[in-house]
Amino acid sequence: MQALLQTNAPELIPCQVKGIAKHGGATVLSFVTSAPDYKGGHIDVHSVWTGWLRNKHVGRKHSQYYEPTMGCMAKAFPTAAEAEAYIAWLIEG
């Protein structure tokens, strides 16, 4: 399922909802960003966050987004396989 993550960035980050963490009950979210490497190219960074669903009302407009948990267990991985293994560990305990 697609969702939005609110971080310190000026815009919401599109991400995937992967499940609920076994300990703490926070939602496990993942997304891929592109980062520059030292050779002038780019690499994909696979990020995994835990967050809480928030509802926001501004006037008549309603939106839902996720905020990182306090002491967020955000991690970044160089490969999708490593990120998926960490996601499985969070969900299954």
Q: How many strands appear in the DSSP assignment?
A: 6
Distance between the termini: 22 Å
Structural class: mainly beta
Secondary structure tally, helices: 1
Gyration radius, rounded: 14 Å
Strand fraction: over 45%
Mean pLDDT score: 85
Query: Which sheet architecture does the biggest sheet show?
Result: 6 strands, antiparallel
Question: SSE string, helix = H, strand = E?
Answer: EEEEEEH
Helix content: 10-25%
What is the general shape? flat
Domains (count): 1
Low-confidence stretches: none
Description:
This protein has one domain. The radius of gyration is 14 Å and the shape is flat. Helices cover 14% and strands 54% of the residues. Strand 3 and strand 4 form a beta hairpin. With 93 residues, the protein is mainly beta. It has one helix and six strands; from the N terminus they run E-E-E-E-E-E-H. The relative contact order is 0.25. The longest helix is centred in the last third of the chain and has 13 residues. Strands 1, 2, 3, 4, 5 and 6 form a six-stranded antiparallel beta sheet that branches.
